[in-house]
Amino acid sequence: MIRRQLLAASRMLLILTVILGLLYPLAVTGVAQVAMSGRANGSLVVADGSVVGSELLGQTFEGDRWFQPRPGSYDATASGPSNLGPTNADLIDMVTQAIASVRRGDGVDPRTPIPADAVMTSGSNLDPDISPAYARLQASRVAAARGLPVQDVLTS
User: Does pTM surpass 0.90?
Assistant: First the structure.
């Protein structure tokens, strides 16, 4: 009796492993490749035939010609937030330094509030998006570096 039950359970385990562990993932992958291959493969950005990044992951760009992202390491192999709480001295120092850096780098008046995304990492530490407020703070610097009117940078 027990032997028969073990045999039936083993067969079910094998069948479900093949269906749910092999066939289903292959079917989902195949549908994704046909229906939306760019998104299924990570929304990769290609320049001159080489992959240079992903639309989904932030990157740091050097120089005044570029809008700067949120602070962070942008290491896709080590994503995750910090565990520093709002009263942690290390976090306070990091944010204070980031505020000073944004004010210095973008020529922001000391009375102008700095958007949170300019000085705080995202939850994953990989978020590529910045707020419109942070983009507006950087617009003058980017416009000057590119030799463009600020209004052109703000509207594009």
Answer: no
